[in-house]
Amino acid sequence: MTAVQKVAIAGAGISGLAAAIRLAKAGVRVDVFESKPELSALGSGITLQGNALRVFDALGVWDEVRSAGYPFEGLNLRAPGPGAPIVAQLPDVKTGGPDYPAGMGMYRPDLARILLRAAESAGAVVHWGSEVTGVVTRDEDAVEVQVNGEPAGEFDLLIGADGLNSSVRGLIGIDTAPQPTGMGIWRSFVSRPAEVERSELYYGGPVYIAGYTPTGEDTMYAFLVEKAQDRFGVDDEDAVRIMLEESLAYQGPWESIRRDLADGAHVNYTWFTQHLVDAPWNRGRAVIIGDAAHSCPPTIAQGAAQGLEDALVLTELLEERAVLDQRLWDDFHARRLPRAQAVVEASVQLGQWQIDGDREADAGGLIFGIAQKMAEPA
Predict the structure, then answer these.
(1) pTM, entire model
(2) What CATH number matches the domain at 6-40+110-178+275-374, 3.40.50.620, 2.40.50.140, 3.50.50.60, 2.60.40.10?
(3) Residues 6+ apart with CB under 8 A from 132
(4) pLDDT one-digit tens code per residue, 163-207
Protein backbone atom coordinates (compact mmCIF):
# COMPACT_ATOMS: atom_id res chain seq x y z
CA MET A 1 0.00 0.00 0.00
CA THR A 2 1.52 3.31 -1.11
CA ALA A 3 1.09 6.57 0.77
CA VAL A 4 -0.78 8.01 -2.25
CA GLN A 5 -3.16 6.61 -4.85
CA LYS A 6 -3.74 9.56 -7.17
CA VAL A 7 -0.97 12.03 -8.05
CA ALA A 8 -0.75 15.08 -10.32
CA ILE A 9 2.63 16.07 -11.72
CA ALA A 10 3.26 19.49 -13.24
CA GLY A 11 5.91 19.23 -15.94
CA ALA A 12 6.99 16.51 -18.37
CA GLY A 13 10.70 17.16 -18.00
CA ILE A 14 13.30 14.77 -16.65
CA SER A 15 12.28 15.02 -12.98
CA GLY A 16 8.55 14.91 -13.62
CA LEU A 17 8.70 11.90 -15.92
CA ALA A 18 11.07 10.08 -13.55
CA ALA A 19 8.54 10.51 -10.75
CA ALA A 20 5.73 9.45 -13.08
CA ILE A 21 7.52 6.23 -14.05
CA ARG A 22 8.19 5.13 -10.48
CA LEU A 23 4.71 5.96 -9.17
CA ALA A 24 2.83 4.47 -12.12
CA LYS A 25 4.83 1.26 -11.80
CA ALA A 26 3.73 1.13 -8.15
CA GLY A 27 0.09 1.21 -9.22
CA VAL A 28 -0.54 4.89 -8.51
CA ARG A 29 -2.79 6.80 -10.89
CA VAL A 30 -0.59 9.52 -12.36
CA ASP A 31 -1.66 12.54 -14.43
CA VAL A 32 1.16 14.64 -15.88
CA PHE A 33 0.22 18.18 -16.92
CA GLU A 34 2.66 19.79 -19.37
CA SER A 35 2.17 23.35 -20.59
CA LYS A 36 3.94 22.73 -23.92
CA PRO A 37 1.74 21.42 -26.75
CA GLU A 38 3.97 18.42 -27.41
CA LEU A 39 7.33 16.88 -26.59
CA SER A 40 9.93 19.27 -27.95
CA ALA A 41 12.23 17.91 -30.67
CA LEU A 42 14.65 20.79 -30.13
CA GLY A 43 17.62 20.78 -27.84
CA SER A 44 21.31 20.13 -27.63
CA GLY A 45 23.13 17.69 -25.43
CA ILE A 46 23.16 16.81 -21.78
CA THR A 47 25.95 15.46 -19.61
CA LEU A 48 24.86 12.78 -17.15
CA GLN A 49 27.03 11.78 -14.21
CA GLY A 50 27.10 8.26 -12.81
CA ASN A 51 24.61 8.99 -10.02
CA ALA A 52 22.07 10.00 -12.70
CA LEU A 53 22.70 6.72 -14.52
CA ARG A 54 22.09 4.84 -11.27
CA VAL A 55 18.63 6.44 -11.09
CA PHE A 56 17.84 5.41 -14.66
CA ASP A 57 18.62 1.83 -13.67
CA ALA A 58 16.26 2.06 -10.70
CA LEU A 59 13.56 3.32 -13.08
CA GLY A 60 14.13 0.44 -15.51
CA VAL A 61 15.32 2.57 -18.46
CA TRP A 62 19.10 2.26 -18.14
CA ASP A 63 19.52 -0.14 -21.08
CA GLU A 64 17.67 2.22 -23.42
CA VAL A 65 19.51 5.27 -22.13
CA ARG A 66 22.89 3.57 -22.46
CA SER A 67 22.13 2.53 -26.05
CA ALA A 68 21.09 6.06 -27.02
CA GLY A 69 23.99 7.88 -25.35
CA TYR A 70 27.78 7.90 -25.36
CA PRO A 71 29.39 6.58 -22.15
CA PHE A 72 32.89 7.76 -21.33
CA GLU A 73 35.49 7.91 -18.58
CA GLY A 74 37.59 10.89 -17.62
CA LEU A 75 37.98 14.50 -18.72
CA ASN A 76 40.56 16.15 -20.96
CA LEU A 77 41.79 19.70 -20.46
CA ARG A 78 43.18 21.44 -23.55
CA ALA A 79 44.99 24.74 -23.93
CA PRO A 80 43.73 27.46 -26.27
CA GLY A 81 45.97 28.47 -29.13
CA PRO A 82 47.86 26.54 -31.81
CA GLY A 83 47.19 22.81 -31.89
CA ALA A 84 44.99 22.86 -28.77
CA PRO A 85 47.34 20.50 -26.89
CA ILE A 86 45.92 18.27 -24.17
CA VAL A 87 47.47 19.55 -20.94
CA ALA A 88 45.79 17.18 -18.50
CA GLN A 89 43.81 13.95 -18.54
CA LEU A 90 41.74 13.75 -15.38
CA PRO A 91 40.04 10.63 -14.03
CA ASP A 92 36.40 10.84 -12.99
CA VAL A 93 34.92 9.55 -9.77
CA LYS A 94 32.34 6.88 -10.57
CA THR A 95 29.50 8.61 -8.73
CA GLY A 96 27.07 5.84 -9.70
CA GLY A 97 29.35 3.07 -8.46
CA PRO A 98 31.39 0.48 -10.36
CA ASP A 99 28.46 -0.80 -12.44
CA TYR A 100 28.09 2.44 -14.42
CA PRO A 101 30.41 4.63 -16.49
CA ALA A 102 31.68 7.79 -14.84
CA GLY A 103 29.66 9.91 -17.25
CA MET A 104 27.68 9.92 -20.45
CA GLY A 105 26.67 12.45 -23.07
CA MET A 106 23.27 12.26 -24.71
CA TYR A 107 21.02 14.14 -27.10
CA ARG A 108 18.48 15.72 -24.74
CA PRO A 109 15.38 15.06 -26.93
CA ASP A 110 16.32 11.35 -27.12
CA LEU A 111 16.34 11.17 -23.33
CA ALA A 112 12.98 12.93 -23.16
CA ARG A 113 11.46 10.42 -25.60
CA ILE A 114 12.76 7.44 -23.63
CA LEU A 115 11.36 8.75 -20.35
CA LEU A 116 8.01 9.69 -21.90
CA ARG A 117 7.63 6.25 -23.46
CA ALA A 118 8.45 4.58 -20.16
CA ALA A 119 5.99 6.74 -18.21
CA GLU A 120 3.16 6.08 -20.63
CA SER A 121 3.95 2.36 -20.78
CA ALA A 122 3.73 2.24 -16.98
CA GLY A 123 0.26 3.80 -17.14
CA ALA A 124 0.84 7.51 -16.56
CA VAL A 125 -1.36 9.86 -18.62
CA VAL A 126 0.33 12.93 -20.08
CA HIS A 127 -1.84 15.97 -20.86
CA TRP A 128 -0.17 18.33 -23.34
CA GLY A 129 -0.97 22.03 -23.51
CA SER A 130 -2.04 21.84 -19.87
CA GLU A 131 -0.59 24.32 -17.39
CA VAL A 132 -1.27 24.08 -13.68
CA THR A 133 -2.79 27.45 -12.85
CA GLY A 134 -4.27 26.88 -9.41
CA VAL A 135 -3.60 24.87 -6.26
CA VAL A 136 -6.20 24.70 -3.51
CA THR A 137 -5.83 22.67 -0.33
CA ARG A 138 -9.31 21.64 0.76
CA ASP A 139 -8.21 19.59 3.74
CA GLU A 140 -5.19 17.68 5.02
CA ASP A 141 -5.89 14.69 2.80
CA ALA A 142 -6.21 16.20 -0.68
CA VAL A 143 -5.16 19.00 -2.99
CA GLU A 144 -7.34 20.44 -5.74
CA VAL A 145 -5.53 21.23 -8.97
CA GLN A 146 -6.66 23.70 -11.60
CA VAL A 147 -5.37 23.39 -15.16
CA ASN A 148 -5.72 26.14 -17.74
CA GLY A 149 -8.01 27.93 -15.32
CA GLU A 150 -10.39 25.01 -14.92
CA PRO A 151 -10.73 22.39 -12.14
CA ALA A 152 -8.79 19.21 -12.96
CA GLY A 153 -9.80 17.25 -9.86
CA GLU A 154 -8.56 16.39 -6.40
CA PHE A 155 -5.34 14.50 -5.86
CA ASP A 156 -3.49 12.98 -2.94
CA LEU A 157 -0.37 14.90 -4.01
CA LEU A 158 0.79 17.51 -6.51
CA ILE A 159 4.44 17.32 -7.58
CA GLY A 160 5.69 20.56 -9.10
CA ALA A 161 8.42 19.49 -11.52
CA ASP A 162 7.74 22.37 -13.88
CA GLY A 163 11.25 23.71 -14.18
CA LEU A 164 13.23 26.83 -13.53
CA ASN A 165 10.30 29.23 -13.88
CA SER A 166 7.93 26.96 -12.00
CA SER A 167 4.29 28.04 -11.75
CA VAL A 168 3.65 25.64 -8.89
CA ARG A 169 6.43 27.22 -6.82
CA GLY A 170 4.64 30.55 -6.81
CA LEU A 171 1.16 29.06 -6.51
CA ILE A 172 2.06 27.39 -3.20
CA GLY A 173 3.61 30.55 -1.79
CA ILE A 174 7.35 30.02 -2.26
CA ASP A 175 8.98 33.25 -3.44
CA THR A 176 12.55 32.02 -3.91
CA ALA A 177 13.45 32.47 -7.58
CA PRO A 178 16.47 31.79 -9.82
CA GLN A 179 19.06 34.55 -9.96
CA PRO A 180 21.65 35.09 -12.75
CA THR A 181 25.21 34.15 -11.84
CA GLY A 182 26.89 36.41 -14.40
CA MET A 183 27.60 33.76 -17.01
CA GLY A 184 25.86 32.91 -20.28
CA ILE A 185 26.31 29.88 -22.51
CA TRP A 186 26.11 29.25 -26.24
CA ARG A 187 25.31 25.65 -27.19
CA SER A 188 25.17 23.82 -30.50
CA PHE A 189 24.58 20.21 -31.51
CA VAL A 190 27.27 19.18 -34.00
CA SER A 191 29.08 16.19 -35.49
CA ARG A 192 31.67 14.32 -33.43
CA PRO A 193 35.23 14.06 -34.75
CA ALA A 194 36.67 10.59 -34.09
CA GLU A 195 39.30 12.02 -31.72
CA VAL A 196 36.65 13.22 -29.23
CA GLU A 197 36.04 10.31 -26.87
CA ARG A 198 35.18 12.18 -23.65
CA SER A 199 34.34 15.66 -22.46
CA GLU A 200 37.07 18.22 -23.14
CA LEU A 201 37.38 21.72 -21.68
CA TYR A 202 39.51 24.72 -22.64
CA TYR A 203 40.15 27.35 -19.97
CA GLY A 204 41.42 30.77 -20.98
CA GLY A 205 41.07 32.73 -24.18
CA PRO A 206 38.18 35.09 -25.02
CA VAL A 207 35.55 33.16 -23.01
CA TYR A 208 35.52 31.58 -19.57
CA ILE A 209 35.19 27.99 -20.81
CA ALA A 210 35.03 26.34 -24.23
CA GLY A 211 34.16 22.67 -24.46
CA TYR A 212 32.21 19.79 -25.91
CA THR A 213 30.81 16.43 -24.87
CA PRO A 214 30.19 13.42 -27.13
CA THR A 215 26.56 12.32 -27.31
CA GLY A 216 26.68 9.49 -29.85
CA GLU A 217 28.85 7.77 -32.41
CA ASP A 218 28.49 10.70 -34.79
CA THR A 219 27.30 13.56 -32.58
CA MET A 220 28.33 15.85 -29.75
CA TYR A 221 27.32 19.18 -28.27
CA ALA A 222 29.69 22.13 -28.11
CA PHE A 223 29.48 25.13 -25.82
CA LEU A 224 31.08 28.47 -25.03
CA VAL A 225 30.63 30.07 -21.60
CA GLU A 226 30.89 33.86 -21.65
CA LYS A 227 30.05 36.85 -19.49
CA ALA A 228 26.26 37.07 -19.37
CA GLN A 229 24.92 39.52 -21.92
CA ASP A 230 21.54 40.42 -23.37
CA ARG A 231 21.66 37.98 -26.27
CA PHE A 232 18.03 36.91 -26.24
CA GLY A 233 16.93 38.97 -29.25
CA VAL A 234 19.76 37.69 -31.45
CA ASP A 235 18.56 35.96 -34.64
CA ASP A 236 19.91 32.60 -35.83
CA GLU A 237 22.39 34.11 -38.26
CA ASP A 238 23.94 36.43 -35.68
CA ALA A 239 23.99 33.64 -33.08
CA VAL A 240 26.07 31.47 -35.40
CA ARG A 241 28.34 34.42 -36.21
CA ILE A 242 28.96 35.15 -32.52
CA MET A 243 29.74 31.53 -31.70
CA LEU A 244 32.09 31.33 -34.69
CA GLU A 245 33.93 34.49 -33.67
CA GLU A 246 34.23 33.57 -29.99
CA SER A 247 35.60 30.11 -30.85
CA LEU A 248 38.43 31.28 -33.13
CA ALA A 249 40.98 31.07 -30.32
CA TYR A 250 40.34 27.33 -29.94
CA GLN A 251 41.73 24.77 -32.35
CA GLY A 252 41.76 20.96 -32.41
CA PRO A 253 38.17 19.65 -32.70
CA TRP A 254 36.88 23.25 -32.77
CA GLU A 255 37.88 23.34 -36.45
CA SER A 256 35.22 20.69 -37.14
CA ILE A 257 32.71 22.48 -34.91
CA ARG A 258 33.16 25.72 -36.85
CA ARG A 259 32.53 23.91 -40.14
CA ASP A 260 29.22 22.60 -38.77
CA LEU A 261 28.31 26.05 -37.48
CA ALA A 262 29.05 27.59 -40.87
CA ASP A 263 26.86 24.92 -42.49
CA GLY A 264 23.88 25.98 -40.39
CA ALA A 265 24.01 24.11 -37.07
CA HIS A 266 21.38 25.42 -34.64
CA VAL A 267 22.67 27.60 -31.77
CA ASN A 268 20.90 28.48 -28.52
CA TYR A 269 21.78 30.79 -25.64
CA THR A 270 20.85 30.82 -21.96
CA TRP A 271 22.08 32.38 -18.74
CA PHE A 272 23.35 30.37 -15.80
CA THR A 273 21.19 30.76 -12.69
CA GLN A 274 21.34 29.67 -9.09
CA HIS A 275 18.75 29.21 -6.37
CA LEU A 276 17.94 26.84 -3.56
CA VAL A 277 14.60 26.73 -1.79
CA ASP A 278 15.05 26.20 1.94
CA ALA A 279 13.12 23.37 3.53
CA PRO A 280 10.34 22.64 3.37
CA TRP A 281 9.86 22.16 -0.37
CA ASN A 282 6.25 21.22 0.27
CA ARG A 283 3.24 23.20 1.33
CA GLY A 284 0.77 20.64 2.55
CA ARG A 285 0.23 18.09 -0.21
CA ALA A 286 2.05 20.05 -2.91
CA VAL A 287 5.81 19.79 -3.34
CA ILE A 288 8.43 21.07 -5.78
CA ILE A 289 11.40 19.09 -7.07
CA GLY A 290 14.14 19.44 -9.68
CA ASP A 291 14.81 22.85 -11.20
CA ALA A 292 11.73 24.22 -9.46
CA ALA A 293 13.49 23.66 -6.11
CA HIS A 294 17.13 24.29 -7.05
CA SER A 295 19.30 25.37 -9.96
CA CYS A 296 23.00 25.93 -10.51
CA PRO A 297 25.56 26.46 -13.27
CA PRO A 298 26.48 23.19 -15.02
CA THR A 299 30.09 23.53 -13.89
CA ILE A 300 30.06 20.03 -12.37
CA ALA A 301 27.21 18.66 -14.53
CA GLN A 302 25.04 17.62 -11.58
CA GLY A 303 21.81 19.48 -12.38
CA ALA A 304 19.98 16.60 -14.06
CA ALA A 305 21.31 14.11 -11.53
CA GLN A 306 19.97 16.15 -8.61
CA GLY A 307 16.52 16.43 -10.17
CA LEU A 308 16.48 12.69 -10.81
CA GLU A 309 17.50 12.00 -7.23
CA ASP A 310 14.71 14.27 -5.98
CA ALA A 311 12.21 12.19 -7.95
CA LEU A 312 13.67 8.87 -6.87
CA VAL A 313 13.86 9.66 -3.14
CA LEU A 314 10.37 11.16 -3.05
CA THR A 315 8.73 8.27 -4.89
CA GLU A 316 10.70 5.70 -2.90
CA LEU A 317 9.33 7.16 0.34
CA LEU A 318 5.80 7.36 -1.07
CA GLU A 319 6.00 3.74 -2.20
CA GLU A 320 7.34 2.29 1.06
CA ARG A 321 5.21 4.30 3.52
CA ALA A 322 1.54 3.79 4.29
CA VAL A 323 0.74 7.46 4.94
CA LEU A 324 1.87 10.84 3.69
CA ASP A 325 2.71 12.52 6.99
CA GLN A 326 5.21 14.94 8.47
CA ARG A 327 7.68 12.13 9.13
CA LEU A 328 7.78 11.36 5.42
CA TRP A 329 8.43 15.01 4.57
CA ASP A 330 11.13 15.28 7.23
CA ASP A 331 12.88 12.21 5.83
CA PHE A 332 12.62 13.55 2.29
CA HIS A 333 14.16 16.89 3.17
CA ALA A 334 16.88 15.32 5.32
CA ARG A 335 17.97 13.20 2.36
CA ARG A 336 17.66 15.82 -0.35
CA LEU A 337 18.33 19.34 0.93
CA PRO A 338 21.95 18.95 2.15
CA ARG A 339 22.92 17.12 -1.03
CA ALA A 340 21.31 19.66 -3.35
CA GLN A 341 22.80 22.50 -1.31
CA ALA A 342 26.31 21.07 -1.63
CA VAL A 343 25.95 20.85 -5.42
CA VAL A 344 24.50 24.34 -5.81
CA GLU A 345 27.15 25.97 -3.62
CA ALA A 346 30.05 24.16 -5.30
CA SER A 347 28.75 24.85 -8.81
CA VAL A 348 28.28 28.55 -8.09
CA GLN A 349 31.73 28.78 -6.47
CA LEU A 350 33.43 27.22 -9.49
CA GLY A 351 31.75 29.72 -11.76
CA GLN A 352 32.63 32.64 -9.51
CA TRP A 353 36.28 31.65 -9.51
CA GLN A 354 36.18 31.86 -13.30
CA ILE A 355 34.52 35.28 -13.22
CA ASP A 356 37.08 36.53 -10.68
CA GLY A 357 40.01 35.04 -12.57
CA ASP A 358 41.18 33.34 -9.38
CA ARG A 359 44.15 31.23 -10.45
CA GLU A 360 44.87 30.10 -6.89
CA ALA A 361 41.48 28.44 -6.37
CA ASP A 362 41.47 24.69 -5.81
CA ALA A 363 38.85 23.85 -8.44
CA GLY A 364 40.05 20.26 -8.76
CA GLY A 365 39.79 19.68 -5.03
CA LEU A 366 36.28 21.09 -4.89
CA ILE A 367 35.09 18.99 -7.84
CA PHE A 368 36.64 15.83 -6.39
CA GLY A 369 35.10 16.47 -2.98
CA ILE A 370 31.59 16.88 -4.41
CA ALA A 371 32.03 13.81 -6.58
CA GLN A 372 32.93 11.78 -3.49
CA LYS A 373 29.72 12.95 -1.80
CA MET A 374 27.63 12.09 -4.87
CA ALA A 375 29.13 8.61 -4.95
CA GLU A 376 27.11 7.84 -1.81
CA PRO A 377 23.54 6.90 -2.80
CA ALA A 378 20.99 9.66 -2.22
Answers:
(1) 0.96
(2) 3.50.50.60
(3) 8, 10, 33, 145, 146, 147, 152, 158, 160, 162, 167, 168, 171
(4) 999 999 999 999 999 999 999 999 999 999 999 999 999 998 999
